[in-house]
């Protein structure tokens, strides 16, 4: 099959969000004079994941997420501060943290010019654009689909309908999404009727969610995509 469009998730697929999160939280805690132990980093990581899953399920919005995650963090570790203010400073630091996933640049170089590339992210607009620019990935992408701009989050079908409308895609099965999140990228792709590729570098056990491809290294995409493109 020839693909008309390749959608890349950003966090955990092209850029290492775990490292970005760690550095941003450490630096923001330092500004406030808070400790930031490994236990605190690990706990915040899980709180944040839980909040983003609630966002994906439509249970909370971005403003509620901003308050809830740090309100819980402050409460659990007896920290005194304004969660919204802390979140604002933390998000500013997220925009400065750009750490490439292994072979992210290499696969973009191999695909660029052979098939249209786009990013499809649930992240914040300014944060994601800044991070892509910092590692010089922005130049490879024809389209940028960021939930904060679109008004919908993956896996909402409206997120993907927006993409189809803007790209004039009429054959969803000729679109492939690559991402590390089964709940956002893979389930969203299945709902939209596009092909899905789960990026699973840690070799996690696969659940029952339908996945067209599973890879552990981004360079595996070369065969999947270019093998299907008439060059």
From TrEMBL:
Lineage: Bacteria, Fusobacteriati, Fusobacteriota, Fusobacteriia, Fusobacteriales
Top-level taxon of origin: Bacteria
Gene3D superfamilies: HAD superfamily/HAD-like, Putative phosphatase, domain 2
Coiled coil location: none
UniProt-recorded name of the protein: Noncanonical pyrimidine nucleotidase, YjjG family
SUPFAM superfamilies per the UniProt record, alphabetical: HAD-like (SSF56784)
Pfam families associated with the record: HAD_2 (PF13419)
């Amino acid at each position: 099959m020839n693909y008309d469009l390749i959608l890349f998730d950003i966090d955990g697929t092209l850029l290492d969000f775990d490292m970005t999160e760690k550095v941003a939280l450490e630096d923001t805690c330092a500004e406030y004079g808070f400790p930031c132990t490994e236990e605190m980093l690990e706990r915040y990581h899980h709180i944040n994941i839980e909040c983003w899953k609630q966002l994906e399920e439509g249970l909370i919005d971005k403003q509620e997420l901003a308050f809830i995650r740090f309100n819980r963090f402050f409460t659990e570790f007896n920290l005194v501060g304004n969660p919204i203010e802390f979140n604002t400073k933390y998000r500013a630091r997220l925009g400065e943290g750009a750490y490439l996933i292994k072979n992210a640049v290499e696969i973009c170089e191999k695909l660029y010019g052979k098939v249209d590339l786009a990013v499809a992210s649930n992240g914040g607009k300014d944060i994601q654009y800044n991070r892509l620019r910092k590692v010089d990935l922005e130049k490879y992408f024809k389209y940028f689909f960021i939930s904060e701009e679109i008004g919908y989050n993956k896996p909402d079908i409206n997120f993907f309908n927006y993409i189809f409308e803007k790209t004039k895609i009429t054959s969803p099965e000729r679109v492939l999404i690559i991402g590390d999140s089964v709940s956002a990228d893979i389930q969203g792709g299945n709902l939209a009727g596009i092909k899905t590729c789960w990026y699973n570098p840690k070799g996690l056990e696969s659940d029952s969610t339908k996945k067209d491809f599973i890879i552990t290294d981004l360079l595996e995409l070369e065969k999947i995509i270019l093998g299907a493109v008439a060059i």
